[in-house]
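Entry for the shared binder. Reason: the reviewer on the internal report wants the predicted structure included alongside the sequence.
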Amino acid sequence: MRLNENPAETEALQPGDMADKLTEFMGRHDFFILSTHDPADADGLGAEMVTACILREKEKKFRIINASAIPKHFRYMDPQGIIEQWDKEQHGELLEQTGLILLDTADEYTMGYMKEAVCQSREVFVVDHHEPKPHAAFSGIVDPSSASTCELTVELAKNLGIVIDPQTAFAAYIGIAYDTGFFAYPKTGPRTFRSAMALFGLGVKPNEVYRQLHENASTGSLLLQKTALASLTLYHGNRVAVQVLRLEDFAEAGALQEDTEGFVNFPMKAKEVVVSLLLKESPEGKIRCSLRSKGNINVAKIAQELNGGGHINASGFKSELDINQTLALTLAKIAEHLDKP
């Protein structure tokens, strides 16, 4: 596996330079595997679709393989069923001669079972917009100023002269809308709207995107939302909101782990709340934690201190501790950051 000898190379690239880097990487390999973090979200999935479109137009062979199945509420993004689930026996032999492209993550520890593929692939190339961890290992395109990885891949396609097909455009627009909160989050900028307008010109209907993202939840998700809000507790003078979901809550509501989509954002509607934390027990025994913040409170740094990562105002991590220990530790970390200038 080829590592990045100079992580600084991933920063401050112009669109043309980004396209050149991807072209160089594509020229070094005949076959590619595309993957994203586990579980996948709309931005990771959309970025996979756009990158697949680029490879297809460049007449390159590829497969999209993720650690686990597409979450139920995002399956409409892959109507042709081209995204596969990792199977060591089926896919293991592909790795040694493979150029692996990681979308929407630069951290192998977010990859679930696909971490094995990261370690065994011939070369790894990253396309990501999250805040980079210190001493990043992989080369590629990491641009934290971008509002989404879909935004980056749409720019790449444009600079490579590739016209995205309508279904891929739909998936890319969903990824952009998802990661920008429908163009409301702080990183939303002119680049974001240029990419969105390009996709709009390819036939994307924003109202259909909204319906799929926000009017497509299960009844179990609705019942689980009631339980999450009932658990809401405020700390630090009402500035920190915490919601907790245990395994029995999922069972009682008839909900899945993925049915918590957006729950962490609910408390942010309150003017006084500047940090929101959602903790949920997972079947594999880990506590999955999501963080959101307002202003200059950098929850990415908090998550990184707890072996996670993400954006300044949106991040997450997994904990091996029990739910009460995880809550105490996370609240202590949040307190350290609350009053920083």
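Summary line for the report: The chain is about 35% helix and 20% strand.
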